[in-house]
Each structure stands twice: as structure tokens, then as C-alpha cells.
Design brief:
This protein is about 40% helix and about 15% strand. The protein has 13 helices and twelve strands. It is α/β, with parallel strands linked by helices and about 375 residues long. Strands 1-2-11-10-9-12-4-3 form an eight-stranded mixed sheet, with helices on both faces. α4 links the parallel β5 and β6. The chain starts with a strand and ends in a 19-residue tail after the last strand.
């Protein structure tokens, strides 16, 4: 059912879908977690309980998975980049290809490109990162500081992806390491998705340590092309038995390609606009993510820049550093549970006063300098 009512002046974009909690898929490889655990400096990121939000949202407990510092970077993306590059280099070595440095090519709205560049630098490889319009100069500078070659693109994210793929294709010493997939390019994006599974495994362990071994009742995840959401769906829909949580995707209103695709029942591309949620400013769902999102998501919502800015400020007041993309999870749940129709949506998602909610804060404030310290719509 689609919903078009809220206590805010605008009309929210929201979709709640029955039946997703019964769908099942195969799990991610177990060795991913061991790989990350063995990396120098790796520690699990915090899962912070915030009772204030539980009271506000009318649920039992709210936890925020704080990805503001993951492997020395201010976002979760290093999980996927490190595992995918590991697989790429291991495969090249096994095939007997030349052992010289490889150029890892990618397009990015910021965090993924920096993660690929950092991984390349640490492993003695090269990186070439294509950056679309709308990424703050300081975010671009952070990628360059990892010794990557940076090409700024006069176009949107999808155009940067196209140019990165073209740059990598004719050169045997270059490998495209992109976190979105399309027909004919699916294996490396699949490895990136596998890398994100570590985040979900940590949540299970941390909830158990916090006295809630049954797991969450709802997980809210920010969405760009849908790769992290694919990992979340895979994790929670691969369990053969036990309670399955509701899964909520959150996008910017300026780039709601997953919400639009779910409404139409098929993947579509949308024209993207300006948004402070730069890392979510993507116009086309990943081809390998789409079946998981279509069958495994319970709900999808699009939020405004003001929604995410207010949520980021509220998180900061409670000691959680969250950029606009990370704060989108809280903003989205507020839209879904608030206003006219909120109680109906709450019931459809199986939430009540005892429910446990996990919000994925996918980046810290340092990941998005454009919006740092600015909680106005369209800030900075």
C-alpha cells in the first residue's frame, strides 16, 4: 500500500509491502567476517542504545550502528572495498597474471571511492576515482590524499560510473571495482555486498551482549544503489527459522530510485537532483541488488534534506556523529511512523511498545563536509 499523508507540510513518499518477511535467500560467506577481523586496526563499530528515540517512536529499544569510524575511515564502505579488492588480487595471482601494480578504477559519491583508494594505497596498488558533480571539494581532496588519481565528471553519478567503466575496460592492468552492478558486470559488486555482511554480524553479537539475542524487530538502512540494503536483506532473510525483522529502506526524495522501482514492480532509473545526502544520490538500482530489494524489503521511504539534517542534529546531541546519509535512517523511520497513517504502517511492520529497532548510521559527519555543522535544508 502506498501512503501519502504526514504531519509535515509536504506529502511523504512511502511504500509498505506485505509478505517480505517470509522470503528467504542464501547467506553471505562466513569467511568474510574472519577476513575483516584479521585486518590491522579492525574493531567492531559501536551499537549505541538511545532511549530518547525509543520513547519518541513508541518502541521498546532503539540502537544506532555507528559507522563514523570504520578501519580509519568515516563510513562503512571500507568493508566492501577491502573484501572485493582482496578477492580481485587473489584471483589475479591464482590466474598467473603479471604481479605488477593494478589500477583500481571506480566512481563514487565520496565514501566508496575513498575506501577503494585507501585499500589500494595500503596494498601498494594504484587507484583512479571518478567523481560526479555535487561532491564537496573536501571530500574530493580526501580521495586525492590517498594518492588516487581523481577525475571530476560534469554529470551525475550514473555518468561517472559509465566513464569509470570505459576507462577500466581496455587496460589489462586496470580493474573496475564498482559498488553497483549491471548486466555483464556483477561478480565484483557481489563481493562488495559480501563485505558489508560483517556489519550485520556485528549487530547480532552486540544485541546478544546487550541482552537481546532474538535480534531486531526492524532495521532501517539508507539506500543509494542498494548494495548495503542487499547485504542487510541477505543477512536477515537467510535464516531458516526464527523471527524475521521488518526491513526499511530510506532514500533522498531527490534520488528515490528504489522507492520508484518498488512502486512500479521493476527496476527503473530516475533523474537525480541536488541533495546533501551525497552518498545516496544515485539514480539506478544495482542489478544484483534489485531482486533482493523487490522480494525482501518490507517498506521504503524517501526523505528531505531537512529531515536528515534534523535527525543528524538530534543524533549529535546524543553523542553520535552522523552525516546526512547516516541520519537518513532515523529520518525515514520518523516519517514512516509519524503523521496520518502512521499507526497503520506501524501495525503493518509489526511494531509495538516492546519492539527493538536498529538504525544504520552509515557515515560520520566527517564523511560529508558539505553538511557538517549545518542543519538547514540544502546546507552548505
Amino acid at each position: 500500500m502506498t501512503e501519502n499523508a504526514s504531519s509535515s507540510p509536504r506529502t511523504p513518499q512511502c511504500l509498505v509491502r506485505p509478505g517480505a518477511r517470509t522470503w528467504r535467500c542464501a547467506p553471505a560467506p562466513a569467511e568474510v567476517r574472519d577476513f575483516h577481523a584479521a585486518l590491522p586496526g579492525h574493531t567492531p563499530t559501536p551499537l549505541t542504545e538511545l532511549p530518547r528515540f525509543a520513547a519518541e517512536l513508541g518502541v521498546g529499544r532503539v540502537f544506532v550502528k555507528d559507522e563514523s569510524s570504520r578501519l580509519g575511515l568515516p563510513a562503512f564502505k571500507a568493508l566492501g572495498a577491502s573484501w572485493a579488492v582482496h578477492r580481485v588480487l587473489a584471483e589475479r595471482a591464482a590466474s598467473g597474471e603479471e604481479p605488477g601494480p593494478v589500477t583500481l578504477v571506480t566512481a563514487t559519491d565520496g565514501n566508496h571511492g575513498r575506501a577503494v583508494a585507501r585499500t589500494a594505497r595500503l596494498l601498494g596498488q594504484r587507484a583512479h576515482v571518478f567523481v560526479p558533480q555535487g561532491v564537496h571539494p573536501r571530500a574530493v581532496a580526501a580521495i586525492a590524499a590517498e594518492r588516487a588519481t581523481v577525475t571530476e565528471v560534469a554529470g551525475a553519478y550514473d555518468e561517472a560510473v559509465r566513464l569509470a567503466a570505459e576507462a577500466a575496460a581496455p587496460r589489462p592492468e586496470s580493474v573496475l571495482v564498482q559498488d553497483t552492478a549491471w548486466a555483464g558486470y556483477e561478480r565484483i559488486p557481489g563481493w562488495i555486498v559480501e563485505g558489508y555482511s560483517t556489519l550485520c554480524a556485528e549487530i547480532d553479537e552486540q544485541l546478544t551482549e546487550g541482552g537481546h539475542a532474538a535480534g531486531p524487530d526492524l532495521v532501517a538502512v539508507p539506500v543509494g544503489v542498494g548494495s548495503l540494503a542487499q547485504a542487510v536483506v541477505t543477512h536477515y532473510r537467510s535464516r531458516p527459522s526464527g523471527r524475521a525483522p521488518a526491513l526499511l529502506s530510506v532514500e533522498p526524495e531527490a534520488a528515490a530510485c528504489v522507492l520508484e522501482s518498488l512502486g512500479l514492480g521493476e527496476p527503473v532509473s530516475v533523474s537525480t537532483g541536488d541533495t546533501t545526502m551525497a552518498g545516496l544520490n544515485c539514480g539506478t538500482p544495482s542489478s544484483i541488488a534489485w531482486p533482493f530489494l523487490r522480494d525482501g524489503l518490507d517498506a521504503a521511504v524517501a526523505v528531505t534534506d531537512l529531515d536528515s539534517a534534523v535527525a543528524a542534529g538530534d543524533l549529535a546531541a546524543l553523542g553520535v556523529s552522523s552525516g546526512p546519509c547516516g541520519a537518513a535512517a532515523l529520518a525515514g523511520l520518523r516519517v514512516v511512523l509519524g503523521g496520518a497513517g502512521g499507526e497503520e504502517r506501524r501495525t503493518a511492520l509489526g511494531l509495538d511498545a516492546s519492539s527493538v529497532v536498529v538504525l544504520l548510521s552509515t557515515e560520520g559527519a566527517a564523511a560529508n563536509p558539505q553538511a557538517a555543522g549545518d542543519h538547514r535544508p540544502g546546507g552548505g
